[in-house]
């Protein structure tokens, strides 16, 4: 779960905003999170989650390759990217903690 790669397609374009003299930033950002453990269980965990956020600034897809789960994230800007990354990593943290609790309970039963 440690691998996070920002793709090379980070692009920024400065555009004038409606004649106000301000420069806008139309940045497209993508990232991948690759999960190498418990991919089947984590895939089930995310099955019910929304893959596109209501503001339409970010979305993600999940693809399974053999024993890996790949989250492909696309965002309009860095704030939207951070929101998606936070959402995914929070769910992964909850899964890890729950897995640890189950493991501890099983160890006590022996």
Tell me what you see in this structure.
- With about 110 residues, the chain is of the alpha+beta class.
- The chain has a single domain (about 5-110), classed as 2-Layer Sandwich (TATA-Binding Protein).
- It contains two helices and six strands, in the order ββββαββα.
- The strands form two sheets. The chain has a four-stranded antiparallel sheet, covered by helices on one side. A two-stranded antiparallel sheet has the order 2-3.
- Residues about 1-25 have low confidence and may be disordered.
Q: Give the number of helices.
A: 2
Percent in strands? 25-35%
Q: Which homologous superfamily in CATH is the superfamily? A: Alpha-D-phosphohexomutase, C-terminal domain
Helix content: 25-40%
Q: Strands of the largest sheet, in order across it?
A: 1-4-6-5
Q: Secondary-structure element order, as H and E?
A: EEEEHEEH
Indicate the CATH topology. Answer: TATA-Binding Protein
The CATH top-level class label: Alpha Beta
Summary keywords:
single chain; 110 residues; alpha+beta; TATA-Binding Protein; four-stranded antiparallel sheet; two-stranded antiparallel sheet; 2 helices; 6 strands; 36% helix; disordered N terminus
How would you summarize the topology of this molecule?
Elements: E1 3-6, E2 14-16, E3 23-25, E4 29-35, H1 39-46, E5 58-65, E6 68-75, H2 78-109
Antiparallel strand pairs: 1-4, 2-3, 4-6, 5-6
Short characterization:
The protein contains two helices and six strands; from the N terminus they run E-E-E-E-H-E-E-H. By secondary structure, it is α+β, with helices and mostly antiparallel strands.
């Amino acid at each position: 779960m440690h691998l996070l790669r920002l793709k090379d397609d980070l692009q920024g374009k400065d555009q004038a905003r409606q004649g106000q003299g301000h420069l806008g930033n139309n940045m497209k950002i993508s990232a991948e999170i690759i999960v190498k453990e418990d991919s089947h269980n984590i895939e089930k965990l995310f099955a019910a989650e929304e893959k596109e956020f209501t503001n339409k600034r970010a979305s993600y897809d999940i693809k399974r390759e053999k024993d890996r789960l790949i989250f492909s994230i696309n965002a309009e800007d860095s704030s939207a990217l951070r929101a998606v990354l936070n959402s995914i990593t929070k769910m992964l943290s909850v899964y890890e903690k729950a897995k640890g609790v189950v493991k501890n309970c099983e160890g006590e039963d022996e």
